[in-house]
Structures are given as C-alpha cells and as structure tokens.
Amino acid sequence: MSWLRAALGALVAVPILALLLFGMGRDPRAIDSPLPGRPAPGFELARLEGTPTRGPLLDAAGAALPDSFSLRADSGRIVVLNFFASWCLACRAEHGPLGEAAERYRDSGVSFYGIAYQDRPEDALGWIRGMGGQVYPALVDPGSRTAIEYGLWGVPETFFLGRDGRVAYKHVGPVSRALLAQRIDALLEGEVAGGDAATSSPGWQRGAEAPGATPELGVP
Amino acid sequence: MSALRGAGCAALMVIATGAGAPAHAAGVPWQARGADSPADRPQIPDSIVEARTREIAAGLRCVVCLGLSIEDSPAELAREMRAIVKEQVAAGRTRAEIEAYFVARYGEFVLLAPRPEGFNLLVYALPVVALVLGALFVVGFVRRWGGAEPDASPQGTGAEVSRTRGG
Could you point out which of A21, A176, B69, B166 has its C-alpha 20 to 30 Å from the C-alpha of A2? Predict the structure, then answer.
C-alpha cells in the first residue's frame, strides 16, 4: 500500500515539478515575435524637429533631410529601427552604442531611426540633447500606431530590417555595441549569401536572453 | 452521511460548471448574423460597435501590463489598441480577423485565452483531469469515512441513544 501511495505521489509530483522547472528555465520576457522573416510594416512618420542634432544633415542621396520619413525610401538599405522614450531608463545605456554604430555604418548602406514611443516631442528632444545629441533622425509616432504595427511590448526595442525589406531580427532591451555590430555585420554579409529571412528567430531568441550585456558576442 | 456526500457533489458540480463555461460566452450578435458579408459592413450602429469592441478587447492582452485585457487596462498603449479594435469593428471586421491582426504583430500571447490546439490543449484538459481526480479522491475518502463510522462503535451509539431516551 505505501509503495502504491509513493508511486501515485510521484506520478502527480514529477510532471508538476518538470513543468515548473521548464517554466523557470525560460525568460518570461522572451516571447517569440512573429515579425522576423516577415515584410517590415511600412510607415511614414514626421521627423522630430531638431533631430538629428549633429552630423551631416543630409540623407543618403545627399539631399537635405525631409520633414518626414517613409520606410519605402529606404528600400534596398539595411534599417535599424530603435524605439525609445525619454522616460525609459534602459534607453540611456544604448544611446551611445546606437550613435556610434550609426556613424560607423553610415557609408555601408545602413539607415538608423529612433522612434519616440509614448513621448511628448519636446521631452524626446530634450532627452536627446541631454544625452549629448544624436546623429540619426528621431521620428514621432502619433497614437503609437507604428509601435503597434511592430508588435512593441515596451521600450527599448530594436528592429533590424534587411535589404529585402523584411524584419531580420528583433531585440528586446538595450542593445550593446557588440550586438549591434553582430546583427548589422550579419545583414551586410547575408546579402552575399542571398537573403536573410531564414536567419531570423534563433538570432532574436539569443539576443533576448541577455538584454543589455552580451559579452560573448565578440566585437569584430 | 448521504447529506454530506450530496453537499460535496453539489459543490463539485458548481466548480465543474464554473470551470467549464467558455470564456467568451456572452452575446455575439454579429457572429450569429454573419457580419462577414461586405454588404452589411458600412452601417453598424454605434452601440453595437461599442459592445463588440468591449467584447473583443476583453480577450486581448494588454502587452504592457500582461495580466490585464486591453479592455480593463488604463495603460495608454491599451487605449490605443482598443481604438484600433474599435476602428476595425466599425469597418465590419470580424472578431477572428481582428484577433488575427494582433496575433500577426504580437504573437499568440496577445490572446488572453490560448487557442485550444496542440500543446495549449493541456491548459484546457488539465483542470478537467484534476477535477475528476479530485472528485474521485473526495468520493473515495467520504465513502471510507462513512463506512468506518457505524462499524467502529455500534454499541456505543446505541447505548447513548437509549440513555438519552431513558433520562
């Protein structure tokens, strides 16, 4: 009788423990995004007046910066879309690395945009100035429509769009120098291999595991 | 004894019916009259748009507060998501279409009730299994209790009864 009880108890307890262990091994924030691999949602957003605050105020073609940006105009280019907010603490950590990457990849066909998320334009601009300025344009997203199109959970989140106009990676949490270099280099090289839609979700999973710090990804 | 068993069964029934009720059983007028046909898309009365919006929004997760629906959440993003639901309802889109819109952007996690398919079936099946196992356990326990009671001291109870009668 007692062995039967023990067996019954084990029968109940073991699956529950297994389920709990399985749950504890997962990052609750790493919710799979359906976006990687899919065409990037288009947008046409007004430029936050006064941004970029420094650097050449010219677009890729050498013309003066327009008042609004449409994703269509960037077709064939790699696009890094960073959702940020002046009220977001983690955004402070990634602001420097994003600016450095924008400067470094300026001539490699990579566009950078910051999209202010649930922020007043004056607050966003004040924050950018306080952070030492920004070399890439910030865009205003009224009603968070673009944020919802990109399935945004919060800020910061960064999307890497390939030359084929598809979302290649999504990163939740602040991006590091190493992560930016790894993602952008992969996209720059991926074109040689022909298309990067397939590289999407595992890369995102890996990136989401350690938001902020990914020291294992070597800087080239 | 039988009264006790009856009460236990009744309690279990209440739990069972409560747990078994579908999450969105409330009135779904447009599904019944098939709003999918484009003919009746343009003119939907405001009150119906409101009601449908509330119902659909109640099944969508507020992504910034996780545990709440966008209907219940006061968060700004939830309000904006609710506005999108309302627009789409007004445009005559069905609940399935609106849910698909959000699932395409946020993944299935945005649905508060997971779709009953694949691994998700566990969520629906386990409570029923647990309930049945629990009911069997309780019934077995009560039966053993009930069976043991009269056997343990038949004399004692009899004596007590006669004594009270005598006194």
Answer: A21
Of residues B103, B105, B109, nearest to A148 (C-beta)? B105
Is residue B76 within 8 angstroms of chain A, CB to CB? yes
Provide the number of CB pairs (under 8 Å) joining chain A to chain B.
40
Supply B125's token pair: 């099946």
- Whether the CB-CB separation of A53 and A133 falls below 8 Å is answered with yes
Distance of alpha carbon B97 from the chain centroid: 23
Joined together, the tokens standing for residue B165 give 């009668």
Which tokens go with B161?
């009864």
Residue A167: pLDDT band (50, 70, 90) is very high
- Are A147 and B77 a contacting pair at CB < 8 A? yes
Length of chain B: 167
Say how far apart CA A201 and CA A30 lie, in whole Å.
Answer: 11
pLDDT band at B97, cuts 50/70/90? Answer: very high
Look up the ipTM and state it.
0.72
Which DSSP helix (H) or strand (E) runs through B158?
helix B154-166
A220 C-beta neighbours (distance < 10 Å), count:
7
Q: Is A14 in CB contact (< 8 Å) with chain B?
A: no
Span A97-133, pLDDT tens digits: 999 999 999 889 899 999 999 999 999 999 999 998 8
Residue in A closest to B65 by C-alpha: A153
Q: What does DSSP assign to residue A168?
A: E
Q: What predicted TM-score, i.e. pTM, was given to this entire model?
A: 0.67
Q: Which residues contact A69 (CB under 8 A, 6 or more apart)?
A: A44, A45, A47, A113, A137, A139
Rounded mean pLDDT, B105-123: 83
Tell me the C-alpha to C-alpha distance, in Å, between residue B78 and each of A3, A60, B58, B63: 53, 36, 11, 8
At residue B112, the pLDDT reads: 86
Digit-coded pLDDT (tens) for A189-212: 875 333 333 333 323 333 333 333
Angle at CA of residue B59, ends B55 and B62, nearest 5°: 115
- A31–B109 C-beta distance less than 8 A: yes
At a CB cut-off of 8 Å and minimum separation 6, what does A184 contact? A78, A80, A101, A105, A108, A110, A160
DSSP string, A79-102: EEEEEE-TT-SHHHHHHHHHHHHH
First-to-last alpha carbon distance for chain A, in angstroms, is: 65
